[in-house]
Amino acid sequence: MSKSIVLGRGMATVGILGTLVAAAMGVARADEMVKIGEAAPVTGPASYLGKDTENGARLAIEEINQSGLVIGGRKVTLVFDAQDDAGDPRQATQVAQKLADDKVVAVVGHMQSGSTIPASKIYNDAGIVQVSPSATNPAYTLQGFKTAYRVVATDAQQGPTLADYAAKTLKVKTVAIVDDSTAYGQGLAVEFEKQAKADGITVLSHDASTDKAVDFRAILTKIKGEKPDAIMYGGLDGTGGPFAKQAKQLGITVKVLAGDGLCADDLAKLAGDASDNVICSIAGAPLLKNGRRTSFCRTLQEAFWLCTGLELTVRIRRGGRYRRCDEARAIDRLREDSRRDAGHRIPRCAR
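The structure corresponding to this sequence follows.
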């Protein structure tokens, strides 16, 4: 099993979607139908992660509808509008425009930074709150959009934490870095590299691969000759697993350091026993350690991604606290609601 490093800040659970549902109810009639959008890759290399997020959100909406949701004295039925962005930036913008055209009041998504960032402008222009369960590139929430939120730590937190661990715990003096050239993988690698250098680690090389690569032997052979104390890989488990496996096959025995993209169930299947050599960070506290989330996780028998989608959506129920309000006021309220998760104080999501 790979080892994971948990960042100090708990995974934020923002009370966001409820506010937007309430905003939509300003002129609502009885038995109103309110659409909640969801966007994730349910086809392509990361489809198994995207499907978990979709299933979690779908289950939450079903439970809310079964128990009954009343806002401002009106009965509300939530309608789930799930879309597949395939993990592709171009398709993500098409999905965002479709959700805007569908008149959703809020969106859970997207999953990957490369899809989340380009889609965010469309949601912002339409005044639709977007809450990503997993996009970690800092650029997403540094665009100045009041509608853009995330519920995990950013790469600006995750990368340095991983570098600090390498320097202070593993006593790494030299490192080789490889990233998959995506907004997530490259962003994480850059943040890691900056902190690694600050910690006195010598970066021997920084190579770029792709998120579709299957053969890493050329890069790894070069890295083997450099004799680093550790290797940092920025990318998802779909490529990171084979990367770690091929490293071991070439006789590279140093630790492979990675972000939350490698902390997935499929890592062991993709990397085999080489997964024992992987150390990855998690961009939030383990959900099963939080009592308020445990029942959901047990129901789904999944952790992290699936519970994330469910958690984000189930907070819609809190919308019953809010009465008539205009959308601009509702979005401003988010900046306060998003400061805390279930029992933890957190910094503003826009940072």
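Residues 5-17, 300-326, 338-351 have pLDDT under 50 and may be disordered.
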